[in-house]
Structures are given as C-alpha cells and as structure tokens.
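Forum: Protein Structure Q&A
Topic: Joint prediction for protein chains with partners

I've read a bunch of threads here and the consensus seems to be that you should model interacting components together rather than docking separate models afterwards. I'd like to see that in practice. Below is the full input, 494 residues plus whatever partners are listed. Could one of the regulars post the assembled result?
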Amino acid sequence: MTRELRVVPLRGIPELEDGDDLGALLVDAAARAGGLEHADVLVVAQKAVSKVEGRVVQLAGIEPSSRARELAGDTDPRRLEVILREAREVLRVRPPLVIAETRHGFVCASAGVDASNAKGPDTLVLLPVDPDASAAALRDAVRQRCGVEIGVIVSDSFGRAWRRGTTDVALGVAGTAAIVDLAGQLDSAGYELHATEIAVADEIAGAAQLVMGKTDGIPAAIVRGLQLGGDGLGSELVMPRERDLFR
Amino acid sequence: MTRELRVVPLRGIPELEDGDDLGALLVDAAARAGGLEHADVLVVAQKAVSKVEGRVVQLAGIEPSSRARELAGDTDPRRLEVILREAREVLRVRPPLVIAETRHGFVCASAGVDASNAKGPDTLVLLPVDPDASAAALRDAVRQRCGVEIGVIVSDSFGRAWRRGTTDVALGVAGTAAIVDLAGQLDSAGYELHATEIAVADEIAGAAQLVMGKTDGIPAAIVRGLQLGGDGLGSELVMPRERDLFR
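Posted by a regular:
Agreed with the consensus. Here's the joint model:
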C-alpha cells in the first residue's frame, strides 16, 4: 500500500434516468480522462446507481401512516413514510433527522432516502436494493467493454456518531478489498499488530468524494495506484449486531 | 473540488524519539519525494507526533487503581489505568475493548492509548495534548524551512459505530478546512443543498492512510490538488454533546 495514489474525477456524465446504461456512460467518461487501467477502483455515487436502477419515488403517490405523521414533526409525513418503508429499525428521531437501519443493515440518516437533486424536492431517491450486486454489474460491464479488471465501489455520504459532518463510505463493493486485516502481520519493528481491520473501501470512497463534490455533477472517480487486491463486499463493512456496542 | 488529487507517501523517516525535529524530518522526506508545494496538505500519523512530543508512558511505573483492575478483565490493569487517566468518560467496556471519550472530546478505542510499535508492548503512546497546536507547529515549521503555505492534518485510526474496521480521521488540523459546509449552495440542477457538512479533513486523513499503511513505517503523506482553502481545526470535528444523538 505504498505507491502514489491518483484520484481522477469523471466529468460529463449526463443527468441519469431509469434504464440508462451507466456502465457505458462511465466507460465513456473514463476514456475522456485517459481510460481505465487494470486494478483501478471506480467509485460511483449511490444516487447515480439508484437512478438508473429506478429506485426513485414520487411523494405525490404516498399515503403516510399514523407513525409517519407522528415522527414527521412539522416536516412532510410522506417523506417519513418512504423512510419507514426503507427502514428495518428506527434508532433515533429528532425531526427532521431520522437515524435508521436500512434493510441492508446500514445505519444512516433517513434510511438512505434522499431528495433528488435534478428532479426537485418531491422526488426521492432510495438506496439500491443490493449495492454489492450493483457494483458487480458495473465491474462486469467494464470488463466486457474494456477488457480490464477493475474494482467498483458504490458510495454514499453517511454521518457518524460523535463526529460532525459526513464522510463517503462504501455501500457496495466488487473486485477490490472492503477490509484489510493486518492481524498477525508484523509492523516495521517486528511486533505483531492487533485490532487492525482497516476499512479501506470506506477510505477509498472518502478519497473519491474529495474530487466528486456534491454540487459539481461529478458522480464518479477513478482511484489508481492502490495495491490492495482482494474481492470484498460492502456487506462486510456492516458491524454484526452481536458485536455492535452502540445499538 | 474537481481537480485530480495525488496522494504521495513520505518514506525514510527514522524511528522517532522525544525531542526529534519532526518538521525538519518531514521536510527532508518531502524533498526526496519532489518537495512540498503551496496548498499541499501534509498528513502526519498521530503516533509520530506523540513520540516527538514525549507523550509516551512506560507500564513499569504504573500503579493500577481498583477501577482499572475491575475494567481490565484478564488484560493488564496498568494499561487500563493509563487509559482511565486519558479518559474524560468511559462509554462502553468489553474487555479488552474500552470505548472512551478523551479529554479532547474524541470518542475512540482506549482513549487513544496505543502500544508503541517500535518499543514493544510495555511502552504506550498517548494522543498529543493539543493536536491542533501540533498541526499548527508543523505548518509553521514547513513555512519557515520551505516558504510554502501548506495545510497539516494529524491523523489517527478510529473505529466507528455500526461499521467494521477503522478509518483514519483528523485529530488536529491547521491551514486547511476541517469541514466544508455546502448549506445554501446550489447543486448542478439549481436546488439548494441541505444537511451538507462534509468532514473533508477526515476524508483526507483516510486517503493518506491508503498509502501510509500500518506496517510499512510510513508515518506521513502529501495530499496534493485539493482546492479547499480554509483554516479549520480538528476540534470542529467533535460533535458537540448537545447535538449528539449517540451518547
């Protein structure tokens, strides 16, 4: 893990619609940035993936339950209803903030439900049904079109307990390590390392965010120079309930 | 935030001792990697900073309190005693794991107390007393020696609630933004963004970790190409108690 890294933003990807060929659009954008190389990791914003997968809901058709009305405070109860449908469990509520566990096991604001930038506040975007499958499909699309083996990370911005601000993390992973476990490895002085699971996929997602921004319409980036290998899953990054001290 | 980033590891920094001139060693290492440039962010591992600041404790001289013995389980109670002295509050205990709030307000494993790699398990390294001051001192040292204005982040590996593995985060920050607040900015479709504090300094620390590793003896990296500006503090990244839903 000691070579220089490059993090390259992918520009010129149009506003996305259900059914668009995101793999082709990403390959084209990467070609304009010099092309994809073997062992690159392509980080793609969750919202881009969700839009082409049709994970979009119009508030207009939503009938809020009594629980949604109760949790909504003075916010739109239809939005709360969509969040509750995506949630396995609501952990904390301080309207308009809802921290919930999604059906995937992710703990995040609004169960990952977010307003669509392009379509305005009455259109909500949900998380992909299976972000690891989304990542694998994009990896396969790149392999087919370019003949290169890359890793793919589907990323989203999550808040954290105890720290301000969001950082981007990996929801879905394919073709690259999610976690690097150094347990049993020796450090530079020859002592064995303990407690050494590094969530590399989250760090890669965060690095990509630094060039993607939120306002620039750049939904993807290439991270080049990682020497991780591996073939992890985003689901590995979810802390198993029985090991979780903060539930 | 849309240029390409480079993340460059700094090699050849020797094992550090109390009183070493870390600024000079970093400038020399950066020179071997092509030199520091205006607006670079230099990320330095907390352990390197702590060692030159003498924040090192020998277990041999420690007398454990009864509470330390109680919390230690079958681990070394002297280690628990050191952790308790660094902690403002203990949040969770599952021996040998202790999650505590440090006097700085950071919530992390062992109140940031860690075994020294180089000196073996009987030597513990504590967090710097004031990581923001440590970062500012390194920034000033670089300005004095090279005449360039850089940002500095003092980083450490923290676990997270709900997610497996550690990611590197910013304990101390100088000369660069800690948080970018997009509230009120318009996204690419012209809608105003909400809930948009991005913890950029944590993402930068995580990006640097990807080239620093834990076993390679690379305690620092340069992150180049950020267009953040700003002059934040690591202390800004601590969630104020009254806003914290997970205490």
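The mean pLDDT of chain B is 92.
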